[in-house]
Amino acid sequence: MKDAVAERIPMHSLQMDEADHKLVSLLRQDGRMPFKTLAEKTGLTENTVRSRLRRLEEQDLLRVVAVTDFEAAGFSLMLAVGVQVEGRSAAEVAADLANFPEVFSVCQVVGSHDIECLMVAEDQEAVSQLITQRLAAVPGVRRLLPAMAIDVLKNQPNWVLFDKSRTAEGKDA
Amino acid sequence: MSKRRLDELDQKIVEVLAEDARTSNRKIAAELGVTEGTVRGRIKRMEDEGQIRITAVTNIDHLRNPTLAYIWIEVDSAAEVKAVAQALADTPQIGFVAVTLGRFDILAITLVQNNGQLADFLNTKVSVIPGVRRTECSLGVTFVKHDYRMSKILG
């Protein structure tokens, strides 16, 4: 019942049993599913559903949230950009890149690049500004190798970072 | 196909829902000084038009050594890109697939626990797709940021 993307990765401890996974899976499909329906579909009582969800939220394991389509937020382009770093630690550069609100995902990696970022932009002019001026000016950035996403076929934000993801502000306006 | 942009009230509602989407319409209405019916109608419209999706997200820190694998794929011929991307999107273990211009033809992202799992995944799930010529991977060391509020909502 655990979702497929994470099925090969064990959890730290037995924080979620089968019923929890079932609840999460139902809420991934419809985050506003009423407690009553959740109870019917899992065979648990409504009170048990409530207390289980409260526990998962208190353990900072689960959040039910609204995810916004980047186009509806005013961004028409998505890019995946590889970053090569020189003269500074990749961790420091990654932390700086994470401060850009349009850069919605940052991961320090090993491979032909040191950091992989996903970002959005309003239009071509904004891409130019973002890549050739703002990101290029971050100390330690040697090369930026962008790929423009022309067709996103799948984007499931299921297992995500919690607290740090709330730092981005502003550009949704 | 471009989507309608959220207006100011939509955005205010989404701000609340992005923190806790199970907040009652009544509470949101009171907070924003609009009627409960307006809140309900706005949320329904945003969901129906694919501007927002209300979903459960789970904390990656609760997994043991989760490693993001960015799989960059070069396809044999340009005409096959779409079909290869679709086959990748149909693979349940892959969470993100985009056809790209530039670096490679396709980017696919999955989670693995280690190099061995990645190699096994590439051999059994990716390289076997007809049209895949070559792959190159970036393997995550530290996941620094992911703003889950931003996504591409499909279908």
From TrEMBL, chain B:
GO cellular component: cytosol
Keywords assigned by UniProt, alphabetized: DNA-binding, Transcription, Transcription regulation
Transcription regulation among keywords: yes
A molecular-function term among this protein's GO annotations: sequence-specific DNA binding
GO terms under biological process: response to amino acid
Alphabetized Gene3D superfamilies for the sequence: 3.30.70.920, Winged helix-like DNA-binding domain superfamily/Winged helix DNA-binding domain (1.10.10.10)
Domain spans labelled HTH asnC-type: 6-71
Cytoplasm as UniProt keyword: no
Superkingdom, taxonomy of origin: Bacteria
Protein name: Lrp/AsnC family transcriptional regulator for asnA, asnC and gidA
Species annotation: Litorivivens lipolytica
